[in-house]
Target: Methionine-rich copper-binding protein CopC
Amino acid sequence: MIGVISRASAAVALAAAAVAGPVALAAPASAHTSLTGTAPEDGSVVPAPKSVVLTFADAVILPQAVLTDAAGKEFGGKPASKGKKVTVPVRKTLQPGLHHVSWRAVSPDGHPIEGEFSFTVEGGATQAAASSARQEEEGSGPWTWIVLGVLALGLVGGGLYWASSRNDEE
Ligand SMILES: [Cu+2]
Model:
């Protein structure tokens, strides 16, 4: 019976870890609270949001957040805490492009926690640029290095062959 229960709870823990992913792995077993999600999500492309919402595993104390565009201009209002959610009002309509949120708060256990994430406000040329930039990033994966490596090997090999055939002539 105990075996069944612990196997079941292990399965639940595994499932929870799979959902929470790196956040769960980064957090020590029993320590300060952590950010469980944001809206907009990190790395997302979204319509201009009216507010930015940070959700924590527990209610946090004295939350602070700075919302900036790519030029460093600030758009965030005073963060308001309600339960496990912290809402940062957006003071002025965000223009298309990359935006960044830096946040900081005090965990219920008294430890400071902080983090950052970014999102892109969709629209016109900026959105196209953002998605093509992402494709380029994906494109310059291992293949670029493999091709460069093969080219380099070819050059070295060719050079060695040339050198050895010259030696043969002498
Ligand atoms: Cu802590």
